[in-house]
Write a structure and sequence with these properties.
The chain has 408 residues and is mostly beta strands. It contains no helices and 33 strands. It has two domains: 192 residues, no CATH class; 191 residues, no CATH class. Strands 10, 11, 12, 13, 14 and 15 form a six-stranded antiparallel sheet that branches. Strands 1-9-3-6-5 form a five-stranded antiparallel sheet, with no helix packed on it. A five-stranded antiparallel sheet has the order 16-23-18-21-20, with no helix packed on it. 49% of the residues are buried.
Length: 408
């Protein structure tokens, strides 16, 4: 099965971007896979080659680099990649050590990718198949591949991932997913759930672009809620925050109009002083930060505050939105640099309706108690970020803004 994607303008983001895939299956140990459609000079071509035996590969196409795999007595998978040159062949041939093997080759092309940064491989016999956690040190794209030697029914795909290749034929079965990964440290497993138990090789890799100024990336978030009568919202410093990180905070009050006092060192960007009394601020973490931060409303009721931390970032700009109902149009903001991130923050004065982030925004947190807040973000290039919005407000007042952060 072939998967293709319409490529967006390259100036919006330099995170690796999926272009297309191709697949070929052979019963004589020598699959011949077509170059994925749209592959251009400088693109990364990843080859995931699977054999329904413990075979190794005696011949690989020119220019491909072996970067890992798994072999046991019953099946094997290997990963290769190359950076496409100015003149690439129309097909690529992989030869197994066993000419009687059932072997498949899946090719995936990504733009703005230069190397494989981290990987894991595991062999599992079960219905729940984990592609084991890895620990990237930067923003990139996670690719999870699962291969098995018989057709299977997928009950649940890996959460949050997009299917890029699926070939469930009468012999080999290979399915591949990807997602943008902006955090650092452990990714957690990516679980594929099958209808029946079988032997599966599961692989998780991250690809990155080392030829760019790294985009700011999310470290962690934290939130706190104080009920009627309390005088503040005390929020823990997000886990892993270190000197130089930028912390961005949003706060709201349920059914009250008030101003806010920010903790020491925080720069206030918005203090609405009208329903739903949303405020937004930021701070660059110093060498010695407190364990918690206290955000204090002048007229408390139900209070909610949240903090998100990004690394490799500096403050760029802020655009506020007016109070709205039903549909929260955040509008567009302006970025002064490429590889930037638009952080979208909003609050409302009710617990009855939860926010929902629009397509293109990655949700960081969304609370559902009184004085709801939501934070999401997206990659952006220099100039206009484009319109962003939250939905499902349920005729409840909401307000907020967009903080643009650029590479430090």
């Amino acid at each position: 099965m072939l998967f293709n994607k319409t490529v967006r303008s390259s100036n919006t983001s330099t995170i690796p971007e999926f272009i297309a895939s191709s697949y070929n299956y052979s019963t004589n140990g020598t699959p011949v896979a077509s170059k994925p459609a749209g592959t251009a000079e400088g693109d990364m071509i990843i080859a995931y080659v699977f054999a329904a035996s413990g075979a190794y590969f005696t011949s690989i196409p020119s220019g491909f680099i072996h970067c890992g795999g798994y072999i046991d007595n019953s099946q094997s998978s290997q990963i290769f990649y190359k950076i496409a040159g100015a003149s690439e062949p129309s097909t690529y041939t992989f030869a197994s050590s066993n000419t009687g093997d059932r072997v498949s080759a899946s090719l995936l092309t990504y733009r703005n990718a230069t190397k494989i940064n981290a990987s894991s491989n595991s062999f599992v016999t079960s219905t729940t198949i984990p592609a084991s956690s890895i620990s990237p040190d930067r923003t990139g794209v996670l690719i999870a591949a699962y291969s098995m030697d018989s057709p299977q029914t997928i009950d649940t795909p890996p959460s949050g991932m997009t299917e890029r290749e699926n070939n469930n034929n009468s012999q080999n079965f290979v399915v591949i997913y990807d997602e943008i990964n902006r955090g650092i440290g452990s990714t957690g497993n990516r679980d594929l759930v099958l209808a029946g138990s079988t032997n599966v090789i599961a692989t998780l890799i991250q690809i990155v672009n080392d030829n760019r100024t790294n985009e700011p990336y999310l470290v962690a978030s934290a939130s706190a809620y104080q009920s009627n009568g309390d005088t503040n919202a005390e929020v823990a410093k997000p886990t892993g925050t270190t000197e130089g990180d930028i912390m961005i905070a949003v706060m709201a009050v349920n059914d009250n109009v008030t101003t806010w006092t920010q903790p020491s060192g925080w720069t206030e960007l918005l203090d609405q002083n009208s329903s739903p009394s949303v405020a937004i601020s930021y701070k660059v973490a110093g060498a010695s930060e407190p364990a918690t931060y206290i955000f204090t409303p002048a007229a408390p009721k139900d209070v909610r505050a949240a903090i998100v931390t990004f690394r490799g970032a500096s403050y760029d700009s802020f655009t506020a939105t007016t109070t709205q109902t039903d549909f929260m149009e955040m509008g567009s903001a302006t970025s002064s640099a490429s590889n930037s991130v638009a952080v979208v923050l909003s609050g409302q004065d009710s617990s009855t309706i939860a926010f929902s982030a629009a397509t293109g925004l990655t949700e960081i947190l969304s609370t559902t108690s009184s004085a709801t807040v939501m934070v999401a973000y997206k990659s952006t290039g220099s100039g206009d970020t484009g319109w962003m919005y939250f939905g499902d407000l349920g005729n409840i007042d909401a307000a907020g803004g967009v903080v643009v952060i650029k590479p430090a």
